Amino acid sequence: MVSIQNTLEEFYIGIKENRWYWLFSIFCRLMLAYAFIVAGFVKIFGERFASGLSTQHPMGAYLEALHHTGSYYSFLGVVQVVAAILLLIPRTVALGSIIYFPIIANICVLSIALRFEGSIVTSPLMVLANLFLLF
Fold this sequence. Notes:
Blueprint: H1 2-16, H2 19-44, H3 58-67, H4 71-88, H5 93-113, H6 122-134
């Protein structure tokens, strides 16, 4: 058991010293934060997210119903912005990633389940970037 712990610790230290790892983690943090700040402010200001999407599409109907929840819709926006801000602060990246994960995982599942072409590629990539930051 001790050898596994030592191996993982050495691996972690090696990664932390890698400049490319550091640059990629900053890139992930900035891109994830940008995506949630934009989406969060749309919700905070009470505008319909993906307003160009027809309500005849299953994702459009879902987003329309979500928009009509009122304060819950705004709450989601606030949580998205808070998670994004936490990702931008080096000391709070872990907390921001923990808050970010269930939101983006839900978006990913919805995109796949409802066959939403608008985020069928980006949402799984965002989940992977978030998992990268978590690990």
